[in-house]
Amino acid sequence: MSAAVDETPHARLALVLHFHQPVGNLDEVVHRCCDRCYAPFLAALEAHPDVVATLHFSGALLEWLEQHRPEIIAVLGRLAGRRQIELQTGGFYEPILAVLPPDDVREQIRMQTGYLRQRFGVEATGLWLTERVWEPHLPELLADAGVRYVVLDDTIFRSAGVPQEELVGAFETEHLGRAVRVYPAAKALRYTIPFQPPEETIRLLREAGERRQGALLVYADDGEKFGEWPHTAETVYGGRWLERFFQALREARGWLRMVKLGEDEAVAPARPRRRVYLPTASYDEMMIWTLPPEVQPRMAALVQELDRRPDASQVRPFVRGGTWRAFFARYPESDHLHKRILEAGRRIAALPDGPARSEARRDLLRAECNCAFWHGVFGGLYLVHLRNALWRHLIRAEVVTDRELRGKPDASAASSRSEELPGRAVLRSPEAVAVLEEGEGSLVTELDQRSTGLNVLSVVARRPEAYHAELARRGTEGGGGSSGGGEPTGPEGGGARSIHDDVVLKEGVRDVVLAYDTHRRGAFVDWIVAAGTPRAAYGSAAWSDFHHGLLGREAKTVVLEGRTLIACYREGRSPKSGRDGTRLGVECSFQLGEPGSPERTITVEASAGRDETRVGYAAAGGIEGATSVVVRERPGGPGIRVKLSAPSEVWWFPVETVSASEAGLERTPQGTSFLFFSSAPGFTISLELLEPAA
Q1: What domains appear along the chain, each with residue ranges and CATH number?
Q2: Whole-angstrom distance, CA of residue 678 vs CA of residue 674
Q3: Tens digit of each residue's pLDDT (9 = 90 or more) over 499-523
């Protein structure tokens, strides 16, 4: 730990902490993280110069700090200047590297490495792997980008057959002859820091050193656990956990040495590194979250059963969950965005080198930030502002690309298909882009307003999540309860409660009746609605009892003209209309950037005149005889005008999901869903994108 200590250590400790904020996160949220976590943690580190650490700050967070909190950048500079910290590289905008094209992987890493070199004068050799999602092809790409080592969870090594007692130093892995060092991060330390008294961590380190001279244990986890996670600010700083931990490390320096992994070879006992080949994996919780919600409880029960066995430590490592890529199957909205990014990247590659290509590439890389692609116990995919940020950057990249490619044959065709989007057609105009799902009754799942960078159809469907069982099980609002699969609660006075320990039901959640969608949300979803269906059924859990499925794709033609998307129905009513009273209802779901706004307005033009109604987000409603409906979520904001070829009845309801966040289960506004009933043969419905007020 200190240069003055010359004796060979019994044990070594590497503290590796990761700090990140998503692209597009709210400024007030990031400021709160700075005040509760980043600033006090770095201040404590600066006050203890004999405590060394390896830190990773994502490029997305560093960009924000440069603009809003430069004093934190200054502290990082001082710590790096006196070599108290090592700074790791990574994908600059924190993407899941395993699902990116190779050129994007290398560019993301080189961008972060270059920033650290220019800003802090350091040469980063280690990489923080986003969400610790590992796939066996990564060593070649990492080595190409100048990476020498990466930290992975020790459970991945165990699943490859490495005994627990061997997980005390560096290993080596390779792909196609390109090798990198891999360090196992000790799960036991992730369970104690900062959730148990500091003495528990010291005990684990001492025991490791007694078993093997010079044993290296790596703690690697999110820095937000030191103040931003629930309860941690009060315990880590208010309860002086971090101060006591640093003091305990200081008192152990007679037998414990702290190291930075980039310098580990200089202090490690001489021994050859063992070669290992690791399977596709991530941390244990992630591999459960990727499973279908109905499977997750069975997986959790199996793990608990195995943990009770006397040979649990020998058997448990070989029972694993799914892979990160499974989120693309669970959430089609995530898969759609990912494939659109791949398509955009291929089109950008056709641009010549220059400022325009660099601008488009930068926005594309921002759109690859991982946070809005998946969901575990944080908001993730369900947070509209995070999804909108990624769409905004993707749309900006495409605007630049199309401007540069204008006039080139087939480069900016009005309608195109690509290998990245099988079964889908991309419709383009200078003002808008739409994506048509040709195999799903001509459902439109994307409609981009290019001037604002807004995909007005980015509305996530309501789907089951494993934690929804809490709504049925819990009898009192806001009480505590174990969610399973998380880190243990520290003993009284010893440490912070982990975010996995509590499931809190926020206001308005306990009594909610969950309703799930059977389809992707978008525009021109065609329902054959039973006679006598009450308006209250629309959007409710009972909706499936009142509709009879979708029309086939041959029932309509969809075209994009400028800023207007038009659906022309060849038969305005379902074939059964007039005999059993069924009606054709055309569903469109919109969000215009602020779906939870209390200032949402729905303006209806009816055959009897104009009716403007300002309604709060939670209000459902309906009207007869409508010929036009205009929706805005805030005064002067972007809008959408729905024009109907004949007076029609219209229903609407707010689309809300019940999803987990750091604060508990909460209702999250996703958008507004409208149902337009056709009333005449040859029914036509058009969606016109409205610009914000100047």
Answers
A1: 11-282 (3.20.110.20), 326-455 (no CATH), 523-690 (no CATH)
A2: 13
A3: 554 556 666 666 677 899 988 999 9
